[in-house]
TrEMBL record, chains A, B:
Matches recorded under Gene3D superfamilies: Acyl-CoA dehydrogenase/oxidase, N-terminal domain (1.10.540.10), Butyryl-CoA Dehydrogenase, subunit A, domain 2 (2.40.110.10), Butyryl-CoA Dehydrogenase, subunit A, domain 3 (1.20.140.10)
PROSITE patterns: ACYL_COA_DH_1 (PS00072)
Superkingdom of this protein's organism: Bacteria
The entry's keywords: FAD, Flavoprotein, Oxidoreductase
Organism whose genome encodes this protein: Panacagrimonas perspica
Protein name: 3-methylmercaptopropionyl-CoA dehydrogenase
Keyword Ribonucleoprotein among record annotations: no
Amino acid sequence: MATYNAPIREINFVLNDVLDVGRLAKEIPAFADATPDVILGLAEEAAKLIEGQIAPLNHTGDQVGCKVKDGVVTVPPGFAEAYKLYSQAGWMSLCNTTQYDGQGLPYTLSKVVEEMLCSANVAFALYPGLTTGCFEAIYANGSEEIKNTYLPKLSTGEWSGTMCITEAHAGSDVGAAKTKATPNGDGSYSIEGQKIFITSGEHEMVDNIIHFVLARLPDSPPGVKGLSTFVVPKYLVNKDGSLGARNKLVAATIEHKMGINGSCTCVMQFDGAQGWMVGAPNTGIQNMFVMMNLARIMVGFQGLGQCELATQNAIRYAIDRKQGKAFNGKPEIIEHADVRRMLLTMKATTEGARVLAYETAFWVDVTHHHPDEKVREEAQDWVDLNTPLVKAFCTDGAVELGSLAIQVYGGHGFIKEHGVEQIARDAKILCLYEGTNGIQAMDLVRRKLMMHNGRLAQRFFQAVRNELNADAPLGWITRPLGRAVDELESTTKFLIESFKTAPDAAGFGAVDFQRAFALTYLGWNWLRMIKAAAQHPDEGFRASKKATAEFFITRMLPQVHSLLGTVRAPTESLMALEAANF
Amino acid sequence: MATYNAPIREINFVLNDVLDVGRLAKEIPAFADATPDVILGLAEEAAKLIEGQIAPLNHTGDQVGCKVKDGVVTVPPGFAEAYKLYSQAGWMSLCNTTQYDGQGLPYTLSKVVEEMLCSANVAFALYPGLTTGCFEAIYANGSEEIKNTYLPKLSTGEWSGTMCITEAHAGSDVGAAKTKATPNGDGSYSIEGQKIFITSGEHEMVDNIIHFVLARLPDSPPGVKGLSTFVVPKYLVNKDGSLGARNKLVAATIEHKMGINGSCTCVMQFDGAQGWMVGAPNTGIQNMFVMMNLARIMVGFQGLGQCELATQNAIRYAIDRKQGKAFNGKPEIIEHADVRRMLLTMKATTEGARVLAYETAFWVDVTHHHPDEKVREEAQDWVDLNTPLVKAFCTDGAVELGSLAIQVYGGHGFIKEHGVEQIARDAKILCLYEGTNGIQAMDLVRRKLMMHNGRLAQRFFQAVRNELNADAPLGWITRPLGRAVDELESTTKFLIESFKTAPDAAGFGAVDFQRAFALTYLGWNWLRMIKAAAQHPDEGFRASKKATAEFFITRMLPQVHSLLGTVRAPTESLMALEAANF
């Protein structure tokens, strides 16, 4: 079985030595008590519960999976008890507003806990994860009455939540959704339709499940501009907060999936279920995106968690496993060059991605709470730019690292009991949901590069260049990183231009560009990590950071140029090929 | 469910227009009747059986899997009937010698059939596949008596075969094997020990299973030089060919795996089982490699089959599936640039890999049967060079393309009923067994580059350059391909040199070098395909080849330079990092 030890030293290093998370307590009055010590202490507390109670359910959750019978969904053994432990200990409400039974702590801390939870058991993590998403969506746009009715119990996890968006014919094309919402005349609506791929759509772990549903009013225009959002509880809620009648909705079936078997993925049938509108009519797509943007960052953290799980298990196996002798005479397989190549790929990816992910979370806190509007504006630019990068890079990385972990284990990696093949299976969904990684790339190229006259990417180029004025001994990082930033910037200009006249050419290169952008971002992270590590008291830690940075700079960063080369390659004949001739 | 249509037009194109398989009938007397028409006709016959009877078992084979109880293994529904159909129709004996009930047809044809079988159902394909391996091993080194006893029934598939090599502590390090063979004094040996990961180790589909077992004589030296090979039947065979007592061996258990669930992977316990030596004492490792080299090519074909399956299903889905509108106004997702990027990656990989694989099979036929010794020598060089390339590139490609197919399907790709997630799961084992792809890379760098003073790679560079003297209109291929070959050659020299003084530096770059070599080989294949396609009567086919070649040359071939750059990057500090500091 895969095992999990929370990487507290690394988390501390990134939060405090690389990113200076202490700025939150210093600059944001609401976080005055959330000092680095408090944040780290809480992370350590969470780690104990996650390592001890939730990681051990990962393998059985995969093997046993979820069952459905007559609309009743059974989750794997131990999940209900663990959910209770986790929610009652307050880990779900960490960063929610104190107004609705939250603890008002930084979002950054909640994401650190998210990373750990998603290493330990990503299928389990979806039950709290979707609940948080539902909380955020209602919090942003719900009426006072709706907020008071649902938010306190969603905040603590006493109730759980879902997002009901996708329909069989409406996946990436959300605007094709057909689910109807007909006014009942009493302020409520009658919801009719079928939603698919509904994570945590039905289970018995909590007393009530709150569905956040995208549906169409009778007189609405077609497409995305005619969608509205509704809160639709499994059990109706009486004025006094007690639960009333069962609503007319049911889990028609659950899906059988490649992975995340511990998470129930339901087909939800709404047969005239009673719901209440959240936000204004026909603003559903905007309302949904409040939650969706944070959900994309959350999925990035799911990927980061799986990257860490793959990496630490592969390292442990390679240190333990003996096969023959390496050139240096030692029997452990970690002494073989090719095994080191794989492990360093995993370390360089995971540790670099962690800085990207944590920094994004940090900026989310700033956008929400910083007293200075100008600082909030800058923070919002970073969040907008980073969201597709975090989502796509961390999740592509999770699949790649899951596959590499199997390769490090050799044939044993293919056997279920060793637990690493589960990573490759669990992680693949992360590249698909909350917008496929191809859609993230289009978001980056079509929207984020264009926003505010290109200001978002310019902030990034400037920030990296500010860091390049380094001491000469760091030239081995700063020179190649400078070249990467230069080519990234010129390709950015090329894309902005070509998108105006040949959008498909930009579309063709979007995924490669996205990866090149993320790798350059990781180059910046490695530069900052090397600077910060110089002060670290542990010699072994410094040596590890140095070797991993060298690996990244000489073997991964150069891919930027190869990727950006393809972005400029011609596409006319590729787009002209008739579908029938493929 | 994934469906499969044998790509007969493409197979014909590669065999006849690109590779001129007619040379076999013209130059090799034994193959005088195996004209291109005969080969294609037989491939079409095989395709009917494979599409109609074996492909439909792929999904249920995955879902139901194999079971073991009291040493009796049950295969998935339909497998036994399909195995009988397949073997009785003669598809297993195609290229075996007529001396032992084979049909004496080209190995190349048998591999074309293998590709199709491995597209349709790679788990099923392992039952015939291992039987062929066992046949080859006994044929190469068995005594007349052993050959007469076992080969006719292995040839036709009336009995099936295994390779019993791996032990729990002896995977990549074969020389650590501990299974003992003690002489019984009557010419037979008593085999004691446990072998793991034994594909087709036990089942009831045939009357007898012949195990080819690597074991150690009592007085043998340690390591690989003390291993011998033995034939150990499930049921002892009487002088008259009838079956005698059950031998003392049993499937102790079967493994639960990420994929190929229809193939039983057994832990085989030999408790004093009676066996007979094949070949001389202590030559087991050489005897095994007769089979292993062909097995590696076979695994390459398994990968090719899975590449084709992923590619054709993704294309069909992208043509059928409608989601919103692309920039050209069409609703099918194949009109989106990023979907085309994925599909063209899949086509460029699969079609290019097919030429590599078929050409390797062609050279195997030449080594075995060509009357001219000099031609056989050249052919052997190609087989030696190509074996790691075919094995590693086609199987890495299968995993990548399985993952891309899921991505093309979006969220639906993650759902089992659609059948493409099975490709990603089934294909991963191909990167691990018969030598991990890292071991293939070390075979390429440590052995193949060094053999005959570097002659193997020189043949390749020369062959590509011969093809570069093309008409000017093909400069868009020949110029970048020429640059790739030049850098590949200089890096080859660098590796040969550095291996002498710093073997770990060469080991660190081996996998990247292997991929760069394979991509350059595919560049050569695409050049040859474009030349051959110019004569093709179908305009749509020509357009498809042109666009796919352009995609490969502008977007995949450039990776060669990025990969070779990493091969030359320094490794000292990466090797010096203490294991504990990872």
